[in-house]
Amino acid sequence: MAKYADDEELRHVESNAIRSAVEAWSKSAPGVAKWTKHTVGNHIKMERWVAEADVDGFNLAYALMPGSFEDIISDLFPVLRKRGLLWEGYAVPGGTYRENLRGEKGAARPPPDHPAAKFHWKAE
């Protein structure tokens, strides 16, 4: 949405994905005269969900690979960090998901007694 002006009506943009999402939101809030980036942010209120419902996270879909994820890293993460909403207290900073899940540096693979230990995919 960065390419759209802050006061631009999002129901008329060329992106089908954005238009479709805004149309769905506008059905749940028919009194909104103009759907801008600010209006969308106020409507979704993801931060409020975290504060009031104690949700653990959100699944963010992508439109472009890897562009959508690059946008999340460059645009969303800094805002979340600034607000103190991005958890950074990992057991193994810079480690893999498995290392952080087990809390052990170097434990990037299942332990030898785990059924999955015999399976290992390698990129060619």
UniProtKB/TrEMBL annotation:
Q: Does the keyword Oxidoreductase apply?
A: yes
SUPFAM superfamilies membership? Bacterial luciferase-like (SSF51679)
User: GO terms for molecular function, please?
Assistant: monooxygenase activity; oxidoreductase activity, acting on paired donors, with incorporation or reduction of molecular oxygen
**Region of interest (Disordered), ranges:** 100-124
Asked whether the keyword Oxidoreductase is assigned, the reply is yes
Q: Which UniProt keywords apply?
A: Flavoprotein, FMN, Monooxygenase, Oxidoreductase
Q: What is this protein called?
A: Luciferase-like domain-containing protein
Q: Which organism is it from?
A: Verticillium longisporum
